[in-house]
Amino acid sequence: MNDFESFPIVGEAAFELLKNSGLRGFSCDRREYPTHVSMSSVWLFLFDTHVLKVTSEMHDLKDWDEVGSIVVDVVPLTDDLPQMIELSCNWGDIASIE
C-alpha cells in the first residue's frame, strides 16, 4: 500500500466567498512553451468585487512521483488583472461546491 502525503487546506474561506457571492466572470492566463501551451492561472470574478486566483503547485514525492495541489488566493481588484469574460446572471446563485 502506498503512503500518501497530506497537505494543508489553505483558502477554504475563498470557496465560501464564491458560494455566498456568486460568479460574475472568469479569465485565464496561459504559458507558452516550445512544445505546448498550458494554463497557469484561472481568475474568478465575484459579484461582491472579490477576485479569486486559482493556480496549481506540484509537490515532488519519492521515486519520481508528484502530487498537484490547487491554491486559491483572494486578490484585490486592480486594473492589471486579465480581461474578464462575463457569465450569465445564473452563475450568481451557487448553492453548493462539490
Entry summary:
With 98 residues, the chain is mainly beta. It is built from one helix and five strands.
Query: Level of helix content?
Result: 10-25%
Number of strands: 5
Basic shape: globular
Mean pLDDT, nearest integer?
Answer: 78
Oligomer state of the chains in this structure = single chain
* End-to-end gap: 28 Å
Category from helices, strands and their pairing? mainly beta
Number of helical elements: 1
Q: Which regions have little confidence, pLDDT < 50, spanning 5+ residues?
A: none
SSE string: HEEEEE
Content of β-strand: 35-45%
Work out the radius of gyration: 16 Å
Largest sheet: 5 strands, antiparallel
**Order of strands across the main sheet:** 4-3-2-1-5
Structure notes:
The structure is a single chain. The chain is globular and about 45 Å long. The protein is mainly beta and 98 residues long. A hairpin with a 4-residue loop joins strand 2 (37-46) and strand 3 (51-60). The protein has a domain at 12-79. The chain has one helix at 12-21, and strands at 23-32, 37-46, 51-60, 66-75, 85-86. The chain is built from one helix and five strands. Strands 4-3-2-1-5 form a five-stranded antiparallel β-sheet, with helices on one face. The model has no long low-confidence stretch (mean pLDDT 78).
